[in-house]
Specification:
The structure holds 3 protein chains of 3 kinds. Chain A is of the alpha/beta class. Chain A is built from 6 helices and 5 strands. Chain A has a single domain, classed as 3-Layer(aba) Sandwich (Rossmann fold). In chain A, α1 packs antiparallel against α6. By secondary structure, chain C is mainly α. Chain C has one domain. The chains are: A alpha/beta, B alpha+beta, C mainly alpha.
Chain lengths: 148, 375, 329
């Protein structure tokens, strides 16, 4: 393993962007990183709030109209290589909010996330469990390690 | 806008924060108008989270709508589904079995525990005290495990259904024992934390006298819930709810209305919640947990108010052919936004974030609500 | 021959200092913060060594800044200043005269602080004003007000810190001057080799406490980290650094921790950093102890606003003045 991939695997900075979910996923993810019970730092995952520092972008929520542009801006601010993890049912398919009554499209939701930015790993669940988040990060990892 | 605080109009610059910011757990935008580094005015923009839940609920079968209300908020999900059930049960004349009522109370109080602990953890994080935040998240994990055990999911447990609670949420001997053990553990840990918290001079100097909301202003700004009680107004809707009649608990109030009283308020309410859960476990009546014998019929617009961790929650809808019509939901954070903006004024920017957080904002609830002014 | 020895001593000291400084953030995070917070914590190499290496391999982007090249050059200048500061602490370099004096050290530290101001005023992050959000709409409060970036706020704070925050460390530097009666490092070291370390006198002990608080303020560690308080300015002046420039920032911070600790060892223990001297181990021990103490302090305290910051600095400065008075008695 080259020094490049080794160092990338040993320090992963994660940024969390919430785009209008119900808070359930957000708090489970913060819980996953903050709570000493899960303690993502032991897997070399660090929480950051600055897109310039981040490697992995974790997105929750169905991306409401107001959040579409900020999400895109934040995604563009992250230097390559980067990976995006969409966490939770809303981020994957819009959840209960996307499809109102048959074929009527929702006017409030611009998502799901993969319509706005490319998604590399998807973590299902409503709300996601902290263990699944760590698993999702791990599944996005080869993309980072093998990038130039 | 204020009487007590000196009115100053010198505004040098605006500092917008958000929608993504470490001090906010959810997307909202705070615009702080500052003179030097002192906040002279503040504006909180909500509506970023608007997903139109009320519109989606229009025309849904009431059972489906109930489980949808749960997805409004990941922190107070049980409160929403419970109140939504109550809104339908009252006009339909559904008698909820006594045991189901007790289980609903247990869920609600567990939720209050986890919400308040989350609030304290978030507050500590904004204070810059990472160790307290982590410790509180660790304490909170006990509650989350209990909720996961009863409901099957750590968030969105979906305990209430029309006419009782879900069979999954039946409390057998093993679960009761676990809840008992959990309450003992929580009481011990929260007591230890509260001791540490109150005796920490650095933390106390940060939060004493900051973000003061006087009683008069709290009433004028139509605050609700713990935010109102921390200013000395003894108003807790749980006192008026018939569901809480069998239980004995105190309504906690604090006098100062600053961040310190807001935080201590929540710490003290945790103990009351533990007290209620212990009583509910002790007196848990036997019997069925679901009443299936009821008829669907059209009902007029019905209102229902309950006390949730953040204050008074209002649901109202009418039923037509078993479908929800004219749904309106008002969440407590809506009422507290005025207080958040007001409390910022006159403080340093770092304290201003604390002043916003002290009112326990939950904008993800708020952004599907209309405002009804009540004092 | 002696020239060759000197070159080996200087280069060897710099290299060893650099290697030790890489481990300091990891030690702080793993052994102190994580232990206090009852969790396992990251591996010791992750925050200090692997993170900078990772950033070196990231794509270099153009920062959002009115002067991107100057902005990107600042961390390098900052690293250079710290290296030069260490260079003049090494006894083989004392021939430079006035540059190896307390006054010069104060000058270098001042440059280090001024860097924050430049960084802050040149950064334009996406997280505040540039966030695409319809704020200024009908009914918005004060729509005409000029808007300020979060980094400009931290510039304002950096300016305040230059004005008052660095008092303690400068006063502490003058304690040893007051004891030895000379501003030259060579004289200070020589005095202590004759009379024993200043640390074990009343003035020196007081001065050490003052120096430690000043050390924390200079490093913006958490109780005194209002410059980069997460609750409002997120990361402050560093917001736009990405890729290798962020790596330089990581390295500078670790290196500054080491250099300030070896400054302490020079001024208060009389042990100048020199790899050929067996006492160099004491410098390393001091360099490990200081971040540990600092981490304990930061894990147990919330962030200070000016309301707590001013009295703390004032009290510590008074203590420093007392130490100087005690030294000149």
């Amino acid at each position: 393993m080259s020094l490049k991939s080794y160092s990338r695997g040993r320090a992963i900075h994660v940024m969390l962007v919430y785009t209008g979910g119900c808070n359930g996923c957000d708090i489970e993810i913060v819980n996953c990183i903050f709570s000493p019970k899960f303690d993502a730092e032991q897997y070399k995952v660090f929480l950051t709030w600055n897109p310039r520092e981040a490697d992995v972008l974790v997105v929750t929520g169905p991306v409401t109209k107001h959040n579409e542009k900020p999400l895109l801006e934040i995604y563009n601010a992250i230097p390559e290589p980067k990976a995006v993890v969409a966490a939770g049912a809303c981020a994957l398919m819009g959840g209960v909010y996307k499809n109102i009554h048959g074929d009527i499209p929702s006017e409030e939701i611009a998502g799901p996330v993969d319509q706005i930015i490319p998604v590399d790993a998807k973590v299902p669940g409503c709300a996601v469990r902290p263990q699944d988040i760590v698993a999702g990060l791990v599944s996005a990892l080869p993309l980072l390690l093998n990038a130039d | 806008m204020d009487d007590n605080k000196e009115k100053r109009t010198v505004i040098e610059a605006e500092i917008p924060m958000g929608t993504v910011h470490p001090a906010a757990l959810e997307p909202y935008r705070v615009r702080l108008f500052v003179e030097d580094e002192i906040v002279r005015d503040a504006e909180i923009t909500v509506g970023i989270n608007h997903r139109g839940v009320e519109r989606i609920m229009e025309g849904l079968p009431v059972e489906k709508a109930n489980s949808l209300t749960e997805k409004i908020c990941g922190i107070c999900s049980n409160s929403h589904i419970w109140n939504s059930c109550l809104t339908a049960e009252k006009p339909l004349g559904i008698e909820v079995p006594e045991r189901a009522g007790y289980i609903r109370i247990i869920m609600e109080e567990l939720e209050r525990l986890h919400s308040h602990l989350l609030y304290l953890a978030h507050g500590s994080e904004v204070l810059g005290h990472e160790t307290f935040a982590m410790r509180l998240f660790y304490i909170r994990e006990t509650v989350m495990e209990l909720l996961g055990m009863i409901g099957g999911n750590r968030v969105h447990y979906g305990a209430s259904i029309l006419g009782g609670v879900r069979p999954r949420c039946e409390l057998d001997e093993m679960r009761i024992q676990q809840i008992k053990n959990g309450m003992d553990l929580l009481e011990e840990k929260i007591t230890a934390f509260a001791d540490r918290f109150v005796s920490d001079p650095l933390v106390m100097s940060r939060i004493t006298g900051v973000g003061v909301i006087s009683q008069k202003d709290a009433l004028r700004l139509a605050c609700t819930g713990p935010t109102l009680r921390a200013t000395g107004v003894e108003k807790d809707l749980r006192r008026d709810m018939e569901e809480y009649d069998p239980f004995e608990f105190d309504v906690i109030t604090q006098d100062d209305g600053d961040v310190k009283s807001q935080l201590l308020m929540r710490v003290m309410e945790n103990f009351e919640s533990i007290k209620i859960i212990r009583q509910a476990i002790r007196d848990l009546p036997p019997g069925p947990i679901t009443n299936r014998s009821w008829e669907m019929k059209d009902t007029p617009l019905t209102k229902s108010y309950i006390e949730v961790p953040r204050g008074t929650l209002y649901h109202s809808y009418a039923l037509e052919d078993g479908r929800v019509r004219n749904c309106v939901i008002r969440t407590p954070s809506m009422a507290n936004i005025g207080a958040m903006q007001y409390a910022c004024i006159g403080h340093h920017i770092t304290d201003a974030q604390l002043c916003v957080v002290q009112c326990d904002p939950c904008f993800t609830c708020t952004d599907r609500a209309i405002q009804i002014i009540e004092i | 021959m002696s020239v060759a020895y000197s070159v080996i001593a200087v280069l060897g000291t710099l290299v060893v200092a650099f290697i030790v400084s890489l481990l300091l953030p990891g030690i702080e995070r793993k052994f102190i913060h994580a232990r206090i917070q009852q969790r396992i914590g990251p591996p010791i190499t992750s925050p200090g060594i692997m993170a900078p290496i990772k950033f070196f391999f990231k794509q270099t982007i153009n920062p959002n800044s009115p002067m991107p090249r100057l902005y990107n050059a600042l961390p390098l200048i900052s690293l250079l200043v710290v290296t030069v500061l260490l260079l003049f602490l090494i006894p083989q370099m004392y021939f430079v005269g006035a540059l190896a004096s307390v006054i010069a050290i104060i000058g270098f530290l001042k440059v280090e602080e001024v860097m924050y101001m430049f960084m802050g005023s040149l950064s334009r992050s996406v997280l505040s004003v540039r966030m695409p959000f319809p704020d200024i709409v009908k009914g918005a409060k004060h729509p005409e007000t000029p808007r300020r970036f979060l980094e400009e706020l931290s510039t304002l704070r950096a300016f305040r810190l230059i004005a008052f925050g660095s008092f303690p460390v400068y006063i502490a530097l003058f304690v040893s001057v007051a004891v030895t009666g000379s501003i030259f490092l060579s004289d200070i070291v020589a005095y202590q080799q004759l009379h024993g370390p200043i640390l074990f006198t009343v003035a020196g002990a007081l001065g050490a406490v003052v120096f430690f608080i000043g050390y924390m303020i200079l490093l913006n560690e958490y109780p005194f980290g209002i410059l980069k308080a997460k609750a409002d300015v997120i990361e402050g002046p560093y917001m736009e650094y990405a890729a290798k420039y962020r790596a330089y920032n990581y390295l500078t911070r670790g290196f500054l921790m080491f250099v300030l600790a070896s400054l302490f060892a020079t001024l208060f223990l009389g042990i100048a950093p020199n790899i050929l001297n067996p006492n160099f181990i004491i410098t390393i021990i001091v360099a490990l102890l200081f971040p540990m103490l600092m981490a304990v302090m930061s894990a147990f305290s919330p962030i200070f606003t000016y309301k707590q910051f001013y009295p703390t600095v004032a009290a510590v400065s008074i203590l420093g003045v007392l130490a100087i008075v005690a030294a000149s008695l």
